[in-house]
Automatic annotation (TrEMBL):
Alphabetical GO biological process terms: maintenance of CRISPR repeat elements
Protein source organism: bioreactor metagenome
Signal sequence interval, chain numbering: none
Protein name in the entry: CRISPR-associated protein Csd2
UniProt lineage: unclassified sequences, metagenomes, ecological metagenomes
Entries under Pfam families matching the protein: Cas_Cas7 (PF05107)
InterPro entries assigned to the protein according to its UniProt record, in alphabetical order: Cas7_Csh2/Csh2, CRISPR-assoc_prot_Cas7/Csd2
């Protein structure tokens, strides 16, 4: 296995959407998420992590150590049970007996989960799916964390009426030739999200340099295999990675994030493409012991 990372990182991702809904809100009729006080668009961290998980699952497929814990149609306690059975535990009595023989069995169970599932190693997980707490696999705090993405400018969500010629039932077909529907889109918006990679927490999950490389690859390509009509055209436009010379870091994260500025070129017109913005990174004012790499 590759060496565990030794450096702290922060990173900034810019991505945009054109004529699509980047993250619908089920509590608002699936309208694009929005900050009601400011009008800025929001995309949740859960949404972005889903894209990263999907990419890893696509490119790594059945590669050992790169399975995905949180995925469709796979109950979490099925994976939890696998970790217990790997350590010869099938019920609570066997777990109690194992703990008497080996007080560190909990760590072994948790280690199995980290070594087999990329998203647990990366984002962490709460693996307490069984009713009896004694049979759970514990909790893991992951080294990689994302905040909510927020649009650079306020967004305007448009409701578009659509029609289709496919009629659902025979009865309806006798009375009408088309059906009406609607969808919500954002004509264009550029979003910014900030993330963190802790080398200190990486020691606990054994998040490696190979995992880190795969993370960057996944962030860059997280929309490339996830296109749909509902989400429109979504693309990652910028990935700026700040690397510290030490495990615990050389500067506060906010100082690094402040070096990245995004400005509209023409304030008199609404933005409709990425070229309407100017993105700059002030490399000259980076704190000592920190380097920045623009991966896109």
């Amino acid at each position: 296995m590759a060496e565990t990372i030794k450096n702290r990182y922060e990173f900034v991702v810019l991505f945009d959407v054109e004529n699509g809904n980047p993250n619908g809100d089920p509590d608002a009729g699936n309208m694009p998420r929005i900050d009601p006080e400011t009008g800025y668009g929001i995309v949740t961290d859960v949404c972005l992590k889903r894209k990263i998980r999907n990419y890893v699952e696509t490119v790594c497929d059945v590669k050992t150590g790169y399975r995905i814990y949180i995925k469709e149609n796979v109950p979490l306690n099925r994976s939890d049970k696998e970790a217990l059975e790997y350590n010869g535990i099938k019920n609570e009595d066997q777990l109690k007996e194992a703990k008497k023989k080996d007080p560190g069995i909990d760590k072994e169970i948790c280690k199995f989960m980290c070594s087999n599932f990329f998203d647990i190693r990366t984002f962490g997980a709460v693996m307490t799916t069984f009713v009896k707490a004694a049979l759970n696999c514990g909790q893991v705090r992951g080294p990689v964390q994302l905040g909510f993405a927020r649009s650079i400018d306020p967004i305007v969500a448009q409701e578009v009426t659509i029609t289709r010629v496919a009629i659902a039932t025979e009865a309806d077909a006798e009375n009408k030739k088309t059906e009406m529907g609607r969808k919500f889109i954002v004509p264009y918006a550029l979003y910014r999200v900030e993330g963190y990679v802790s080398a200190n927490l990486a020691k606990r999950t054994e998040f490696s340099e190979d995992d880190l490389s795969l993370l960057w690859e996944s962030v860059i390509n997280m929309f490339e295999h996830d296109h749909s009509a509902a989400r429109g055209k979504m693309s990652v436009r910028e990935l700026a990675v700040f690397k510290h010379d030490s495990e615990l870091g050389n500067a506060p994260a906010y100082k690094l994030f402040d070096t990245i500025t995004i400005n509209r070129k023409d304030e008199s017109m609404p933005a409709r493409c990425y070229k309407d913005y100017e993105v700059s990174v002030d490399m000259t004012n980076l704190p000592s012991g920190v380097t920045c790499t623009r991966m896109i």
